[in-house]
Each structure stands twice: as structure tokens, then as C-alpha cells.
Amino acid sequence: MRIAFTTSGETLDAPLDSRFGRAPKFLIYDLDTNTLEVIDNGQNLNAAQGAGIQAAQTVARSGANSLVTGHCGPKAFRVLAAAGIKIFTSDAPTVAAALEQYRAGKLAEAKAADVEGHWA
Amino acid sequence: MMIAVASGKGGTGKTLIAASLALSLGKAILVDCDVEEPNAHLLISPQWQLTKEVLLPFPKVDLAKCNFCQECQRVCRFGAIVVLADQVLTFPELCHSCGACALICPSKAISEEKRKIGEIRVGIRNGIKLMEGRLQVGEPMATPIIRELKRWLDKEDSTIIFDAPPGTSCPVIHTLRATDYALLVTEPTPFGLNDLRLAVGVARKLNLPIGLIINKAGIGDRGVYDYAQEQNLPILLEIPEDRAIAEAYSRGKSLVEAFPEYKKIFLGLFEKINLQAGENVRKAVGSSKR
Questions:
Q1: The predicted structure's pLDDT at residue A49
Q2: Chain B contact for A74, CB < 8 A?
Q3: Which of B35, B18, B4 is nearest to B179 (CA)?
Q4: Domain coordinates of chain B in residue numbers?
Q5: Is residue A115 part of a domain?
């Protein structure tokens, strides 16, 4: 089971980034082996459009089964849902705190985008 | 003669100027290119004659033929098509309708469908023909509607006045492109000046002769005047900050309708524009001969 977290850092102490598409990095945590991997999302930081779509593909390619982030827009949601990735939103301050929430079963699965797209 | 009325800053009076100029001339085509919020019709009150839908193609993927090679996704510069392990998602609102995905697809799995993004309306009032583009709410791309407006333009021999959207991005460039003159409307404030500089930059890139109209003269500072002098840009007309003009405008009355003395002023403006545009053409011909 692999979980993707949006973050600006590279460790579990790093802050959880509330943005999905334009988060600087994804920290992929493997619950079975308790190891982590960091994937850069920098190319999307300055994308004019479609950042959420691209980011969703990056997460899909990482092999993550779940995503924990602050917010998720409609286009990213469509791609993530199509790729079979479960989406959880959290306002935890750090990746570690969000991971704790996930393990404790405190995060509810998002069934729809919780923010408007930038074009809306 | 094709004159584009632009500004950079919003709310400087583009539509008021464009409509007043058209009404003063008596015979003209006024093209409302501010397709995200067209409002020239409020000043013209035309009788609408016809409406045409603007359709845009977008890709439709036949999954039975698709081999998920991702070539379509690689060629799309707008992220409008996404290939996953066993499905393909399209995002029509991001698609620029270039057709590259369908062209590159090795298994011919992509065809094009069309969807409506807005419409064009044509209306008449006396000698004025108003053409209006209207983008559907929620649609992000204004330029296809402006392109369609220009394609539909019946050039005949009459004067064509384009009412540009504010800003200096793609819709403004599409409006200004291939016209004869950039009539830039500004207000004498630091905001007006900042955005005027940007608009002048665009008009110069497009090699258009430029004339300025200062609206709401009397407010703000001298910055716009100093800039005009320094850049050698003619100030063709100043319209004073006047509550009576704003009141008339708010009731859908153009300058010439509310204050008939403006008709002469606008005809004088048109003469100056013609002269300057003519000089520009002579200069261009002269330099190409050399």
C-alpha cells in the first residue's frame, strides 16, 4: 500500500502542502516497508494550465493507491478517480501528522472535488 | 479602414468610444470582440437579424482501437488528453482544437467531435451593423469566437470598428491583428498609464499606427501626458471626467446621442485617424521600395 502526500519537503517532518496540482513535491510512503520516496512536481509549479491533470498522472505513475492532500480540483479528481487512486483531504500541518491521521482511520475518502477549477 | 479600440486597462471607455465613433459615422460595422462580456449592444440597441453557433472540435477516442501508446498525450501541448493504463480521458475545455492528437494516432483511434462554445449575433440599427461574439459562461477560450467574428466579417467598403477586450493577452492580439489602426483609450491615472504602456507594446509589435484618447481627463496626474510626449504618441481626443456622461452611459446612451455636439468631434477624430493611417501606409510602401 503506497500513499502519496503533497509537500514542499523531503522528510516526514515536512509540511503537508494544501495544494495538489502545484505542490512542489510528492512524498510516497510505503506502508508495507515503511520506506519513502520523493517525486518532484516542479514542472507543474509554473504550468499555465492542466497542473492538476499532470500531477494526477505523476501520482498514478508512482504506483500510489491513495493520495493525502489539502484540496483537489475537478480535473485532477477525474484523473485520480479514473486511475483508481483514493483521495483523502487533510489539514494536518506535516506529512507525519497526516500519515498518523491516515493510519488512525481519521481521514474520510473524498467523493468529489472540494475546490473549483481555476477556469471555473 | 479597420480601427481597433483597445486599452489595456478595463473600464477606460473603449465601448463608449467605439460605439460613439460608429454612430457618428452613420455607416459602419461595429464588432464587439469583448466576447467574455459583450456590451456594445447596450449602446447600439440593434435589431438582431441572425445568430450563429461557434463550434470547436475536440478529440473523441475509440477505446476499441486505442493501443494506449500515449502519442496523443505527448503531442498535446495543453494537457487536454490523458492516457491511463486502460482508458483515455479528454478535457475539451483545455483543447485548442489543433487536431494533432488525431493526426499522430498510429491506430486511428481519434476522431473529432464538435461542441458549442458560444455564438455570434448580427444586428442592425440604421446604417450600423453590430456583430457580437458571446462566449458561453465557463468556457475559457475567447479567441476562437474572435477568429470566427473576423471570418464572418463582410468587409464591403465600410469602416469597421473593433471593440477589443481589456488586457493585452491572446483575445486582444487577435482583435488588433490585421487591422489598420490601434486607437488606445486610457485614463490619466497611474493604473491607466501602466496598462497603456503594455497596450502600446502590443500595438507596436503588430506594427499598427497608434493614437490615444484620454477619457476622464481631469482626474489623476500628468503621467499619461508625459508618456505620450516622450513616446511621440498623438493624443487625438480628451473627454472630460463628467458625471453627465456617466449618467447617460448608465442609461445606454452613447456620447453622440446624449451630447450631439460630439458628432463633429468624432468625425474630426476619424479624419485624424485616416490621415495617420494613410501616412503609415505610405511609409511602409516607401520603406519596402528601398
A1: 77
A2: no
A3: B4
A4: 2-54+117-289, 56-116
A5: no
Contacts A–B by Cβ distance under 8 A: 34
E strands present in B85-141: 88-90, 110-125, 128-135
**B68 in contact with A, Cβ within 8 Å:** no
Instruction: Please check whether residue B208 is in contact with residue B218, taking contact to mean a CB–CB distance below 8 angstroms.
Output: no
CB contact (8 A) between residue A119 and residue B138:
yes
Angle of helix B190-205 versus helix B223-230 axis, rounded to 10 = 30
Q: Among all residues of chain B, which has the CA nearest to that of A83?
A: B84
Task: Check CB contact of A53 with chain B, cutoff 8 Å.
Answer: yes
Residue A86 inside a domain? The answer is yes
The full length of chain A comes to 120
Shortest distance, CA B79 to any CA of chain A (angstroms): 6
- The pLDDT-based confidence of A37 (bands split at 50, 70, 90) is very high
Chain B CB contacts of A79 under 8 Å are: 82, 84, 89
Closest alpha carbon within chain B to A49: B78
pLDDT digits (tens, 9 = 90+) for B224-261: 999 999 999 999 999 999 999 999 999 999 999 999 99
Pick from B79, B82, B87: which is nearest to A49 by CB?
B79
Encode pLDDT of A64-106 as tens digits.
Answer: 999 999 999 999 999 999 999 999 999 999 999 999 999 999 9
Our CA angle for A43, A47, A52, nearest 5°, is 85
- Give the CATH number of domain B2-54+117-289: 3.40.50.300
Residue A113 in any domain: the answer is no
Q: Domain B56-116: state its class.
A: alpha beta
Q: How many structural domains compose chain A?
A: 1
CB crowding B52-68: b at 16 or more within 10 Å, else e: eebbbbbbebeeeebeb
Determine whether the interchain pair A82/B89 forms a contact, defined as Cβ–Cβ distance below 8 Å. Answer: yes
CATH number at residue A57: 3.30.420.130
